[in-house]
């Protein structure tokens, strides 16, 4: 009887070791894996002389398409085909910089593919930065995903934007939503671009995150899934003190946004892609920039639509206008 108890105790200890040692190691290592930058010199950067900068943002929903669960049961080939289609869509909009949300880095449910790397290669982006929101492992299953910035121009520096936590315990055990700020070198001009994905569960956390974006960080262009739509727009929400994250952007008056008014048709809605009814994805530009064009791209490759904006530095736009005015 004693030997049997010892055997059971040893088996239990072995199982606990198998479960918790990989998990603990993954959580300790997550701090070193939280941010990375990658470059390939196989492509030349395009010229932007006299033309707008085109920036896109896209929550790709881990490549799961319209499914509500990441454990879709589809094959690796099916997921790969969807990634190929996403890459073609990204390439088709001809963006200079692309912000990706809900992109997997070696997650088990997406067959351990680094989606940022794959999309960068397939869509033709020689530079990328990756930032992980969640990063942990249990036995043989890995959860590693977050934000990425793809660029046709060199990324000179990248940092993590540490947003407020929804839960301290959750942050410790698995991670939390954060942002990614990149310094992009566009023909000698350094541009601060931030990719963000704010809390999907709490408007108060989103409002505090916007406070940090407005008052602590220094990006000139901010893009991503804010999970917030302003007062007066369909499906707008507020926190306990009637606060709203996009309203907070407007109150700070540091950034321009589109659409300004509540959309009159579904063409400006970004979510849900199969039944568009709200605007929760945004591209914000500081007053240094002029927004020339802005549109959502209809597609069912994700539950979000991709946003594409054309922006130009005000000083450059004035030069172009002056040059056109002086032409005979």
Put the structure in a nutshell:
One of its GO terms (molecular function) is catalytic activity. The chain is α+β, with helices and mostly antiparallel strands and 328 residues long. The protein has seven helices and 13 strands.
Taking the alpha carbons of the first and last residues, their distance comes to 102 Å
| SS field, number of helical segments | 7
Please state the structural category.
alpha+beta
Shape: globular
Portion in helices: 25-40%
Low-confidence stretches: none
CATH architecture call:
4-Layer Sandwich
The average pLDDT score comes to: 90
Element string (H = helix, E = strand): HEEHEHEEEHEEHEHEEEEH
Query: How many β-strand runs?
Result: 13
Describe the model.
This protein has 328 residues and is α+β, with helices and mostly antiparallel strands. It has one domain (34-39, 48-326): Deoxyribonuclease I, Chain A, CATH 3.60.10.10. It is built from 7 helices and 13 strands. The protein has helices spanning 2-33, 76-93, 115-123, 168-173, 203-215, 245-252, 314-326, and strands at residues 35-39, 53-59, 97-104, 127-138, 141-151, 155-161, 179-186, 189-197, 221-225, 255-256, 281-286, 289-297, 306-313. A hairpin with a 2-residue loop joins strand 7 (179-186) and strand 8 (189-197). Helix 2 (76-93) packs across helix 3 (115-123). The longest helix is centred in the first third of the chain and has 32 residues, at 2-33. It starts with a helix and ends with a helix. Keywords: Membrane, Transmembrane, Transmembrane helix.
């Amino acid at each position: 009887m004693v030997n049997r108890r010892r055997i059971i105790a040893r088996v239990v200890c072995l199982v606990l070791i198998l479960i918790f040692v990989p998990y603990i190691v993954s959580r300790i290592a997550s701090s070193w894996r939280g941010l990375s930058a990658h470059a390939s010199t196989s492509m030349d950067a395009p010229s932007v002389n006299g033309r707008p900068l085109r920036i896109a943002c896209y929550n790709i929903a881990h490549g799961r398409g319209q499914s509500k669960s990441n454990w879709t049961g589809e094959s690796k080939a099916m997921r790969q085909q969807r990634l190929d289609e996403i890459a073609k869509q990204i390439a088709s909009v001809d963006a200079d910089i692309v912000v990706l949300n809900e992109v997997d880095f070696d997650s088990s449910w997406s067959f351990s593919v680094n989606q940022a790397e794959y999309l960068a290669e397939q869509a033709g982006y020689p530079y990328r930065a990756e930032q992980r929101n969640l990063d942990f492992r249990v036995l043989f299953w890995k959860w590693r995903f977050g934000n990425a910035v793809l660029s046709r121009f060199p990324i000179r520096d990248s940092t993590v934007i540490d947003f407020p936590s929804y839960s301290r315990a959750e942050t410790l055990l698995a991670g939390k939503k954060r942002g990614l700020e990149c310094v992009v070198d566009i023909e000698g001009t350094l541009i601060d671009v931030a990719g963000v994905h704010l809390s999907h569960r709490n408007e108060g956390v989103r409002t505090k995150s916007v406070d940090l974006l407005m008052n602590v960080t220094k990006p000139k262009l901010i893009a991503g899934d804010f999970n917030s739509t302003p007062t007066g727009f369909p499906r707008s929400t507020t926190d306990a003190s009637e606060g709203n994250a996009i309203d907070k952007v407007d109150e700070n008056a540091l950034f321009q946004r589109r659409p300004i008014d509540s959309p009159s048709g579904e063409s400006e809605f970004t979510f849900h892609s199969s039944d568009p009814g709200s605007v929760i994805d945004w591209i914000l530009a500081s007053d240094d920039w002029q927004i020339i064009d802005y549109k959502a791209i209809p597609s069912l490759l994700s539950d979000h639509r991709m946003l594409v904006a054309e922006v130009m530095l005000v000083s450059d736009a004035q030069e172009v206008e002056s040059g056109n005015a002086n032409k005979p």
